[in-house]
Task: inverse folding
């Protein structure tokens, strides 16, 4: 049954099928197409629509332009039993990321820790995809990446760092877990875009205008491209978010020898002609190397947090990963992903451009 | 020449001497007394007076009460070439911390990474002390600890986590470096105390009252003991700081099997009779395992940040570690540490109580 305009539901499987078809039409190996589709559909399923199908066209553009190499597979340049330095060979983010995290997992299973950093990679989607990969093997997983400059250091008028996300995931009992996946800016750029579309002001602490003044106007914020670090202004400790952003770039860009800080190309949905050369780091740690009973304590800690007395009785205290869990439950209940009309129009354009089978609705 | 009341300068060496004498009088081994004094005087020298001599009396109280065991040395419970699980045996924080970070450094030099977590430890001072220890050996260093509950999870009326600090340090050329050392709360408790003493309001985003409302009254904030996570309220992404706080506790408390979350005893300057059983983690990573030229790129990145166009021409853009660098230069220029009268009175009390030689002034 085809959905009406108000009910544009696409099943997770169908979304994945469509994205695999698009990537395959861009002439990349089937396994690479699948890895990218799995990454993007996971973002949509988890509720991070900005990092899902929303990015499909950009990736297709980069493959068409030859800015990224869809067939490349990563190379290990140097390794120890606990570490590896990887050249992503300008391959697709998911291909590089999965390779590196799987290597880190293998090392962690052997020796307790795997620490793998990669240069010459591309956008790797949600950082959480890779930390989850480690978590699903019973490990603690960490993933970070540098990105195009958007964050203003405290006291600076201009951006010098990306939104440089940190993800950390750890398993609890009965499928429960803690999954942190956060930009080190106060908010990611997508949140400014949503405020712009809704014509709502941004809270103070999200963004600056070109002169460095805090702004609540999402249009001014979007044009300036100057996101404030987590913590906002200096008197609310924005320098901590700035420090975390630099820390991420040291472990990703500086360590791997990729681009870093202002050397990373500017963000663009299309028209980039230079290799991104992003740096990532992937870390897996085996909790069995430490105190027995890790997942029991995880469950207890999560219970403590969720049971804290609420400020507003209607708003439960959550743990990182709960918003995504709630979103996935809703998708399952509704039977599919609810894309915007705008997104579906982009998909129609891709159908024509790549001659793939259109999306069908639930 | 004895300083006047307005000029209470104590040389770094004399401060260290005094603290060694106090710890020795509390009948702990000389090497343990030196390790604690080195830790505390480094905090004062770096400008973190809340974590320096200010803590001396508390440590002496804990030794006197038998709450901490000043003679204990840590035991390795389990290890791989890359990891270790350590029992701090309720020893002093610096003794446990130095032992663990030195072990992590050794492992990193051998195999690229050392990841050591400890249970049954006590307050370990500034987290930066341990990351610096790795950095001084040419490594990236990370140190984190859990602490007594003071941070309210987003939407919670009560505290469930400590200020749970993260420190990350990495070397650049010519003695320059990046040294992040931050509580995952918006501010540490000491900043509220300073506002209280000055009778100045706190910015919104620092603390809550007992009902969970943001407060600007430092007295209300101090009494409630409810610090907000980095990022402040939910609409400015305080859940990220909360997430970071939980992450720290997972790597420290949950991994090591120490106390965690609300199981950590409440903060008290004196009168604690139960073992703290805190958990820490110490990580060292050898950048030589990755791209050559690490310190060159570090220097370039630091230069980029420091050279960013300023919002206020009078306020230079800094890099984490710069405020401490500036403070150390000032101490060197002035010839000593400038303790408050209040602190010096506490020292006089300790002189009588422990029969040690009084502090002399520059």
Result:
């Amino acid at each position: 049954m085809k959905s009406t305009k108000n009910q544009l539901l696409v099943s997770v499987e169908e979304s994945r099928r469509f994205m695999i078809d698009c990537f395959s039409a861009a002439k990349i190996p089937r396994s690479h197409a699948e890895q990218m589709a799995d990454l993007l559909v996971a973002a949509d399923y988890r509720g991070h629509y900005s990092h899902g199908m929303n990015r499909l066209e950009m990736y297709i553009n980069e493959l068409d332009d030859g800015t990224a190499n869809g067939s490349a597979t990563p190379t290990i340049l140097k390794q120890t039993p606990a570490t590896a330095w990887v050249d992503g060979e300008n391959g697709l983010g998911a291909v590089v990321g999965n390779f590196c995290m799987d290597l880190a997992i293998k090392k962690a299973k052997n020796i307790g820790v795997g620490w793998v950093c990669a240069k010459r990679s591309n956008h790797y989607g949600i950082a959480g995809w890779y930390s989850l990969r480690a978590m699903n093997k019973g490990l603690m997983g960490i993933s970070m990446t540098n990105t195009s400059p958007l964050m203003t250091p405290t006291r600076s008028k201009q951006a010098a760092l990306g939104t440089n996300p940190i993800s950390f995931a750890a398993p609890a009992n009965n499928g429960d877990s803690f999954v942190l996946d956060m930009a080190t800016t106060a908010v990611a750029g997508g949140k400014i875009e949503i405020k712009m579309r809704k014509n709502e002001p941004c809270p103070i602490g999200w963004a600056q205008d070109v002169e460095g003044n805090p702004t609540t106007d999402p249009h001014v914020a979007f044009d300036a491209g100057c996101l404030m670090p987590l913590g906002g202004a200096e008197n609310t400790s924005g320098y901590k978010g700035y420090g975390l952003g630099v820390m991420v770039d040291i472990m990703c860009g500086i360590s791997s020898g990729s681009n870093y800080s202002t050397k990373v190309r500017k963000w663009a949905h299309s028209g980039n002609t230079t290799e991104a050369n992003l740096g990532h780091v992937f870390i897996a740690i085996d909790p069995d190397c430490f105190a027995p009973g890790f997942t029991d304590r995880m469950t207890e800690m999560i219970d403590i947090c969720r049971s804290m007395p609420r400020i507003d009785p209607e708003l439960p205290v959550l743990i990182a990963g709960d918003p995504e869990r709630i979103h996935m439950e809703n998708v399952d209940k509704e039977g599919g992903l609810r894309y915007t009309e705008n997104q579906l129009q982009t998909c129609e354009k891709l159908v024509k451009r790549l001659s793939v089978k259109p999306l069908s609705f639930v």
